[in-house]
Amino acid sequence: MPTFKLNGQEIPFEQGDTIIRAAWKAGIEIPHYCWHPGLSIAANCRMCLVHIKSGRQMAMPILKYDEKKKKYVPDTKPKLQPACQLHAQEDMEVDSVSEVVKEAQSHVQEFLLLNHPVDCPICDQAGECKLQDYYLEHQADFKRKRTEPVHKPKGVRFGPTIVYDAERCIMCTRCIRVCDELVGDPVLDMRERGNRNEIVLAPGRELDHDYTLMTEHVCPVGALTSKDFRFKARVWFLKSAPGVCTGCATGCNTHVDFDPRYGKVYRLRPRDNADVNQFWMCDQGMLTYQATHERRVTTPVIGRGEDAEKVLMDDVHDEVVARLEKVERGSLAVMLSAQQASEDNFVLATLAKALGTDRFYLGEKPVGDWTGDDILKHADPNPNRAGALGVAESVLGLASLPGAAQLAQDVESGAVKSVLALGPFAGADVSALEHLEDVIVLTDGEGPLADVASVLVPITSWAEMFGTFRNAKGMDQSFVRAVPAAADVEPAWKTLVAIGRELGEDLGLARTGEVRAAMGTGASTAAESAAPAPAE
Q1: pLDDT (tens digit, 9 = 90+) per residue, 105-153?
Q2: Which of these, 221, 224, 292, 321, has the minimum number of CB atoms within 10 Å of its CB?
Q3: CA–CA distances in Å: residue 19 to residues 13, 14, 326
Q4: In whole angstroms, how far apart are CA 267 and each of 206, 222, 400?
Q5: Which phi and psi (to 5°) does residue 385 adopt?
Q6: CB 32 within 8 A of CB 121
């Protein structure tokens, strides 16, 4: 592979790579605002200027103050070039840390901050703002401007999800390029010139496509803010864990941002993976974190309606064991879930097989108003259909599984008299299950199956466990625990292992790694699937 030198270090590059992209791949950041690895080159911020020391040198005429003559005299200095626009060439020598480069970066930074409001204490971008970071690194000096700054519109509603502050905007045009190039919806544009510039909506339009939160995510400053996250948390209090989106079968890689003080997830951000989602996520996917705290099932319940009784976890385990001991094996239906982790499905299928049942079904989130697209959104709104079907094939020898509609028919015909189900969703009307005495449901949230359960067993959500999803491409992707679960609530597979032990079926599984080894999956770890840090 060809290489060039950046500050004396050999940097490999592929044909067509620019200097900044090759450096980014090597884990080296050249300061920038407008460049993003997933968008076209704008080269308008001029923060990534570098000195090309090899080849024919270009000089720029300047006036330099001569102390002896006490006046400005003609002189020259190296002409710097934008690293985002200049293609890497073999044996090229590039300097991004010389005094000349640092001086240029300082001047660019000062220029960008001439009219920028110093409102960091109330800005949601504080703590992850490139203006803050680069000010300390490349300027760190007082503002010299003494005149009134140019004032622009603030708190402008761009649409249902985004608020715009024109005074904070540095006109990097990333948001415009996301709409134009990723989404194909040119709803944003720039008007006026110089320090009068601002981002505007197309006449009669709102920013309302399915990737509006990406326009906020790529903003390197605090000009665009998400209504969902706005004023809810300070980023320096948040920790991050690698996750996998549960919104659909694409399986976008995510950063799960949570506050460890409260055990609460506050947002999801896309985690780079060139084979899955590149640098992006859809709005619906970025908001799936809300389900980790809303409509949750955290308390065991025995009975239905007025007879429903909240009990302790030990009591519900005993109840499940007692009911499973007396059910007729041939009439017991077991429902795997396209929403739950492969580990949960694997242990459920393994236990059910040991108990001697041969009736298996697949629960799924119905399509409803969900629609796929040609960008990221898959037509299937379930994150682990492939994983559940993979378990069915490997453990049960079944190439496919019937759905909830077939289960309802089997209940009405009398073939099924008891149900052991995983997850909140069935995929079809399961009101027929209300007439069964034994409907045991292990779920992390409310849903159709929880509504008809006679025994409700809470389990952890994806944010509270280590697990694996298999996406529509057949890729097994692991995620890690971000926040602690409610007291005594365990992952479904652990709960089922404990129940199996009480039933005399010791599965010999105690850790996630042991379950994965028994599954024989090649699930990539979060670290292995992570790409270089996003350029934001």
Answers
A1: 999 999 999 999 988 999 999 999 999 999 988 777 788 888 899 999 9
A2: 321
A3: 8, 10, 69
A4: 23, 17, 35
A5: -60, -45
A6: no
The answer, yes or no, to whether residue 287 has pLDDT greater than 60, is yes
Q: For residue 388, what are its two tokens?
A: 């559940």
> 275: helix, coil or strand?
coil
Print burial letters for 249-275: b (CB count within 10 Å at least 16), e (below 16). bbbbbbbbbbbeeebbbbbbbbbbbee
Residues with Cβ within 8 Å of 405's Cβ and at least 6 positions away in sequence, in order, are 427, 428, 429
423: pLDDT strictly greater than 70: yes
For the range 26-31, what are the long-range contacts, defined as Cβ-Cβ under 8 Å and sequence gap of 24 or more? 27/532, 27/533, 29/535, 30/83, 30/96, 31/105, 31/134, 31/137, 31/138
What's residue 523's pLDDT?
A: 52
pLDDT at 285 over 80: yes
Q: Left if phi > 0, otherwise alpha if psi is -120 to 50, otherwise beta: which for 425?
A: beta
Question: CA-to-CA distance for 324 and 512, rounded, in angstroms?
Answer: 25
Q: What does the block give as tokens for 93?
A: 């020598």
**Cβ(183)–Cβ(280) below 8 Å:** no
pLDDT the model gives residue 442: 98
pLDDT tens per residue across span 302-329 = 999 888 999 999 999 999 999 999 998 8
413 burial type by CB count under 10 A (0-12 exposed, 13-18 middle, 19+ buried): exposed
Phi, psi of 387 (to 5 degrees): -65, -45
- Measured in whole angstroms, how far is the alpha carbon of residue 320 from the centre of its chain? 36
Scan for tokens 């008891």, then name that residue.
418
Quote the CA–CA distance of 428 and 408 in Å, as a whole number: 9
CA distance readout (Å), 121 to 118, 125, 144, 224? 8, 10, 22, 16
**What is the C-alpha separation between 531 and 401, in angstroms, rounded?**
35
Structure tokens, 66: 């001569």
| Contact (CB, 8 A) for 276 and 285 | no
Q: Which domains does the chain have, with CATH numbers?
A: 1-98 (3.10.20.740), 301-529 (3.40.50.740)
Question: 174 — phi, psi (to 5°)?
Answer: -60, -45
d(CA 283, CA 268): 10
Contacts of 34 (CB under 8 A, 6+ apart): 42, 43, 44, 45, 47, 84, 172, 173, 174
Task: State the Cα–Cα distance between residues 257 and 241, nearest whole angstrom.
Answer: 7
Residue 184 to residue 375: CA distance in whole angstroms: 10
Starting from the edge strand earliest in sequence, which strands make up the sheet with 81-82, in order? 9-12, 3-6, 93-95, 49-52, 81-82
Alpha helices (runs of H) in 472-534, residue ranges in sequence order: 492-502, 512-519, 526-529
Q: Residue 273: helix, strand or coil by DSSP?
A: strand
Cut 0.85: pTM above it:
yes
Average pLDDT of 78-86?
95
